[in-house]
Amino acid sequence: MTTINKKITIFVLFLFLYVSRAHAVIILVHGSFATLSTWWKPHGPFYDELEKQAAGFKQKVISFSWSGIPQDAQIISGAEALAKTILSYPADEEIILIGHSHGGNVINFASHLLHDWLGEIFAARPYTTISSIITQAYNSMLPGLNLQNSAPVVHNLNQPQDYTITTKQHKNNPVFKTVMNAISRIENHKLTHRARNKTSNKRFMLDKVYILGTPVHTEKYPPQMKVIKNFFNLYSTGDFIQPIFGLYKRTYPLHERLVNLSVSIQDTGNFLRPNKPQHYELHSPIIAQWLLAIPETLQAQKLGNFEKFSFNKNGALFFSHKHAPFYYAIHKKKSLRIF
């Protein structure tokens, strides 16, 4: 594809997006140790390219900052601040989140804070104790952080349980305190948000989540798909930071609205894994150039084989400097785990 043809293609995509999608807010979340990096801020390469694409259909890009320290308490605190930011927008606003590295886990935990877990617990068990509610909320939101001597994760909400002892065991743990404080504060924001948006019929609070090279831990930081409409996990087999010596995975279990996409980018990686981007290369401007068009716009325009795109199936993307990204399915039943 020539440069002129590429520009024409991008213009057509802008036009399609402008007339077919509501205006949205796009929140960009950086990863670990990246508070001083520039790529996610105005005038940074990824941010500027993303803003240029968003401007074509009057969408607004916002940089969101958290401590960048990859510890559970810091990720949870960042998630609380992100959830508050999201709740500051009208319920009918289209919300798109993009997170790199542990910024994706900040997004994932924020989705749990935004979920109406209180309503869910009371609907299943209308007669329950406060201690039961507290510990059940903690376990359901962060089962991978259950502490020593704590109760197992509850899978049957109708089964009678006494959580008083478990709560006492948790109470002096700083992560438990962080989670409980976050839940308490966010509930107040959620009540205000619901009061302001009584007429909204929107089913999912978060329309799209794109995560880039996020360390995947399905017990500690799974996405809450009752809050997220569509979830896109972009990862690279050339990224050796994401799995952190096998402590994390690259992909999530299959879901009808979630897709794992293995990324290749022209002229990235190294001689061992050519075109397989390293961790920092997953926030390349070439991804920002096309990300908002994945998948609907490229699918509608029948570009890059996207007419064959499907959720609930592992796939791959090849980004080139000369044409739209190319999609193809990976026919594997199990999610990939590459260290």
Description:
The chain has 339 residues and is α/β, with parallel strands linked by helices. The protein folds into 2 domains: 3-114 and 193-329, Alpha/Beta hydrolase fold, catalytic domain (Rossmann fold, 3-Layer(aba) Sandwich); 118-173, no CATH class. The protein has helices at 3-20, 45-55, 72-87, 103-114, 117-124, 130-141, 164-170, 174-196, 285-290, 296-300, and strands at 24-29, 60-64, 94-100, 206-212, 228-235, 258-265, 315-319, 326-329. An 8-stranded mixed sheet has the order 2-1-3-4-5-6-7-8, sandwiched between helices. The longest helix is centred in the middle third of the chain and has 23 residues, at 174-196. The two termini are 36 Å apart.
Low-confidence stretches: 17-21, 146-169, 333-339
Largest sheet: 8 strands, mixed
CATH class of the largest domain: Alpha Beta
Question: What is the number of E strands?
Answer: 8
Distance between the termini: 36 Å
Cα Rg = 20 Å
How many domains, as an integer?
Answer: 2
Strand content: 5-15%
Would you kindly provide a brief summary of this structure?
The protein has 339 residues and is α/β, with parallel strands linked by helices. It has ten helices and eight strands.
